[in-house]
Amino acid sequence: MKILVTGGAGFIGGNFVHYMVNKYPEDEIVNLDLLTYAGNLETLKPVEDKKNYRFIKGDIADRDFIMELFQKEKFDVVINFAAESHVDRSISDPGIFVQTNVLGTVVLLDACRAFQVKRFHQVSTDEVYGDLPLDRPDLFFTEETPLHTSSPYSSSKASADLFVMAYHRTYGLPVTISRCSNNYGPYQFPEKLIPLMISRALAEEQLPVYGKGDNVRDWLHVLDHCIAIDLIVRKGREGEVYNIGGHNERTNLEVVKTILKALGKSEDLIHYVTDRPGHDRRYAIDPTKMEQELGWKPIYTFDTGIPETIDWYLNHKEWWQNILSGEYKNYFEKMYGERL
Ligand code: NAD
Ligand code: DAU
């Protein structure tokens, strides 16, 4: 199979490329990424010389480029990770979220239609369901929960999901959608809660906790997300949505304190700051459909995954320090400059 992975230089897409290239040597994995601020080719170093892997720089929202690429490559499967993914950035600059997350997805859908792609998989998010109240621990997001978004980011992702389902119903395009909870693990950009807190705690810098720190997120190790997507693409039913999560709810304060304890740092570093506007209170996934229909079960709990993740950031300081210094931006030039 020839598989196009978009956004494979980002956090989850990068982990997914590692997983697929190693698991399926007979498949061809093509990674298309625009290399925005969040795209980092250093993440792909462990696979960049593998025979079944190729990188292409490009924009999913560039219609002419995408149509030409699909005509030339004849992909069997397209898995769309490419997105603007940070909620805080969507609050200060929503426009690019519409451009990439909505228009980019529609361009990919059109290309899949035009060139008879056998499966289009959209990597969506639990944020499309909005949030749950803190005092109702009995409530969870199921695939039937109505879309009810809060931020420009989640609105752009929900909008993309609606287009994906419309292309299935109207044109019969073979699609699937996954909606996962918060991911953590190796290669996450240090603007997101866990790597941000690890890097700042190590530097003895203040740790900015929004509001009271009582918002709840449902944490899943990125490898468990990758395994779930692979299963959906191979065995999931066309036109279906699958929720992915492992019942690992923690308040933000609990997460930050866990990190501080593991690093032997003082809780005095915690600094409460003004809350995120429209801040979602609680996310919690009901993964019954994934478990019963596809036999998926996460490998990690938060308690087993978080120490391993903290160790990864301790052992790969160069990876995230290059991001903080901006050095990672030079990697593309070094690697590909002479070849273009
Ligand atoms: P990320 O920001 O780390 O990576 C996004 C990647 O997309 C980057 O490599 C970037 O260069 C690329 N990209 C951006 N615009 C592009 C464009 N126009 N054309 C081609 N490539 C482009 O994001 P992530 O955290 O890895 O998230 C990946 C996907 O998973 C997103 O769709 C996100 O909505 C979804 N998701 C994320 C989480 C999470 O916890 N991080 C949870 C559930 C779902
Ligand atoms: O639920 C899935 C979503 O999880 C994905 O769709 C998004 O792409 C991903 O970014 C993530 O969104 P969140 O907003 O939940 O993640 P973030 O790491 O930005 O924040 C996690 C929680 O921590 C949230 O309640 C806000 C809080 N926070 C975050 C930062 C960056 C802080 O308190 N301080 C911070 O500095």
Structural class: alpha/beta
Small molecules (ligands, ions, cofactors) in the structure? nicotinamide-adenine-dinucleotide, 2'deoxy-thymidine-5'-diphospho-alpha-D-glucose
Low-confidence stretches: none
Fraction of residues in helix: 40-55%
Q: How far do the termini sit from each other?
A: 27 Å
Return Rg in Å: 19 Å
Task: Describe what this molecule looks like in 3D.
The chain is of the alpha/beta class and 340 residues long. The protein has twelve helices and 13 strands. The strands form four sheets. A seven-stranded parallel beta sheet has the order 3-2-1-4-5-6-11, with helices on both faces. Strands 7-10 form a two-stranded parallel sheet. Helix 1 links the parallel strand 1 (2-6) and strand 2. Helix 1 (11-23) packs across helix 7 (222-235), helix 2 (63-73) packs parallel to helix 4 and helix 4 runs parallel beside helix 5. The longest helix has 20 residues, at 95-114. The model has no long low-confidence stretch (mean pLDDT 97). Residues 6-7, 9-13, 33-36, 38-39, 59-61, 81-83, 85, 100, 104, 123, 125, 157, 180, 182-183, 189 line the site of nicotinamide-adenine-dinucleotide.
The gist of it:
This protein is 42% helix and 16% strand.
Task: Please describe the structure with a list of short key phrases separated by commas or semicolons.
binds 2'deoxy-thymidine-5'-diphospho-alpha-D-glucose, 340 residues, 7-stranded parallel β-sheet, binds nicotinamide-adenine-dinucleotide, alpha/beta
